[in-house]
Amino acid sequence: MTMTQTSAAAVEAAPRHRSRAALASGLVLLAVVLAVVCFFSITLGSRGVGIPTIWKAFTDYDPSAASQTVIREMRVPRTLIGLFAGAALGLSGVILQGVTRNPLADPGIMGINAGAAAFIVFGIMVLGAQDVSTYVWFAFAGAGVATVTVYAIASLGREGATPVKLALAGAAVTAILSSVTSAIVMTNVEALNELRFWQVGSLAGRYFPVFWQTVPFLVVGLIVALGTGRALNGLALGEDLAVALGQRVKLTRVVMFVTVAVLCGAATAACGPIVFIGLIVPHAARLLCGPDYRWMLAYTLLLTPTVLLLADILGRVAVAPGELQVGVVLGVLGAPAFILLVRYRNLAEL
């Protein structure tokens, strides 16, 4: 290589290097923001606590101190579940949008959360499953059944599973499964009172037993999901080119759909069906970092729990001393964002 060619290569590499540095700096900034949001998630609520109380709760715990008990037994597990469940739903949204080539795909719209919720309610109310470690398997089954059903319905016809058909099939399956869930719950008054908050998606009342029984599945799913960036980039080039590059497209799609089922099933088992967050945040990540799915996954990993915890904090302080469930807050905020996404769809093309 000549000196001129070497210089040209160095000039071309410099912008890419600066771009990578900027993207890495963005991740660091997002991590700092997420840490701050976690701090406020622990301190804000109907009972305000300060840093000295938090410090004592972990270094010199006094079980008789109500504020310390609230921190250790309620807000810390609530925040941890929000972190992992938010990340799971966000990465699921990125994978679904990449695999289906549908900018409007997310676990809520495609019926995956509704499937997990319906199977969980069936397991609890009909089969008597009470422990999270038991009904989380119902969540996986429901998420898997919903995924297969939506994709099978959308695949009918000569065009195959187009983005529009996937969205319509997901809406239909969601409506059916939500009706089944409501029918089961409405037949039992005690169940209605017990599950009505959980049905809309909630971090309230989710303590350490729930966290420890779902976090192994979430961790495994998150690790696999973060490793799908290169495969998603290949699919973004088109199926034919991906095959030409040596990618096993069918196997890749199966692995990704299984990963989504695990992530959504575990997240739904932990805090109920939460909508919109897996749809909107991946597009925000795309605006920040560009179309490379490796960076999109990393950005979404930090952005989604930040948004989820902010919505949970807002629900706690907006009607204090009462509380709005996080699913309600995200529904109110996510619906206008969804309308804008549909209205200006050219901004969200994959």
TrEMBL record:
What Gene3D superfamilies does its record include?
ABC transporter involved in vitamin B12 uptake, BtuC
The record describes its membrane topology as: Multi-pass membrane protein
Main location class: membrane
Which InterPro entries does this UniProt record tie to the protein?
ABC_BtuC-like, ABC_transptr_permease_BtuC
Which GO biological process entries does UniProt record here?
siderophore-iron import into cell
Give the location in the cell. Cell membrane
Q: SUPFAM superfamilies, alphabetically?
A: ABC transporter involved in vitamin B12 uptake, BtuC
Keyword Kinase carried by entry: no
Residue stretches in coiled coil: none
Q: Which GO terms describe its molecular function?
A: transmembrane transporter activity
Please provide, in alphabetical order, the Gene Ontology terms of the cellular component aspect for this entry: plasma membrane
Q: Which UniProt keywords apply?
A: Cell membrane, Membrane, Transmembrane, Transmembrane helix, Transport
Extract the CDD domains matched here: TM_ABC_iron-siderophores_like
Membrane-spanning parts: 21-42, 80-99, 111-129, 135-154, 166-187, 207-227, 254-281, 293-314, 326-344
* Assigned protein family: Belongs to the binding-protein-dependent transport system permease family. FecCD subfamily.
Recorded protein name is Iron chelate uptake ABC transporter family permease subunit
The species is Aeromicrobium yanjiei
